[in-house]
Amino acid sequence: MLGLALGSALLFGCKAGGEDQGLEYAPQMYHSVAYEPLTQITEESEGSWLSTREDGKGEFYNSNVHNPHNMNMRLPVENTVPRNQNGYLPYRLKAFELDKAAEIPNPVALSEEVLKDGKELYLQYCNACHGAKGEGDGLAGQVIGGVANLTGGAYVGLPEGHIYHVITKGKGRMGAHGSQITPENRWKIVHYVKQEIQGGQGAQSTLASAEVTEEVETPAN
């Protein structure tokens, strides 16, 4: 009987309806103080019946004092497209749009420093499958098989935009790495693959000459 009474009490206590949400264990795990993007709850007592906030305000209060115009996120300017801090446009090509991707030039200027970064990134993200020299003989590549040998065949002539797209979206057995590698770092890997692994074959960029040619002024006649 005691167990039945306890069970009934628990069921009754968990019953929810209307403003009464019943009993909850660790309510802040279910009702986090979140900012809605375009609205604010400015009434500080809103949700006070549920609140366990240290600041004493209601659980649902989410006003942002830094943007008091009843929004927590400002609307973007009309007819504008957001760019990242490097000025890159959002990459919106689908996985199958390889032909369009091939037309995209590498926006990262080629330099010795970029190649150095590209090598480090390649060894971090690509070496396991493609191998240090790009021959498809990485330790993981030997297990799964079918890994591209970047040093020969049609792979040598691939445009830089194509390689970037495959890193971003994946292709065949290669998974997408767009969520793991920043856009700039992906382009650095592309430079390293084209310049070092493929010996510059099919590359659209070349290193600037280290030699500086001095201009000699010609006396006026």
Helix and strand layout, with pairings?
Blueprint: H1 2-14, H2 98-101, H3 112-125, H4 127-130, H5 139-144, H6 160-169, H7 183-197
Helix pairs in contact: 3-7, 6-7
Describe this structure in words.
With 221 residues, the chain is an all-alpha fold. It is 30% helix and 0% strand. The chain contains seven helices and no strands. It has helices spanning 2-14, 98-101, 112-125, 127-130, 139-144, 160-169, 183-197. Helix 3 (112-125) packs across helix 7 (183-197). The longest helix is centred in the C-terminal third of the chain and has 15 residues, at 183-197. The radius of gyration is 29 Å and the shape is elongated. The relative contact order is 0.10.
Salient structural properties:
221 residues, mainly alpha, disordered C terminus
Strands, count: 0
Overall mean pLDDT:
83
Largest sheet: none
What is the H/E order? HHHHHHH
Oligomeric state of this protein: single chain
Task: Evaluate the radius of gyration.
Answer: 29 Å
End-to-end Cα distance, whole Å, is 118 Å
What sort of overall outline do the alpha carbons produce when their principal axes are compared?
Answer: elongated
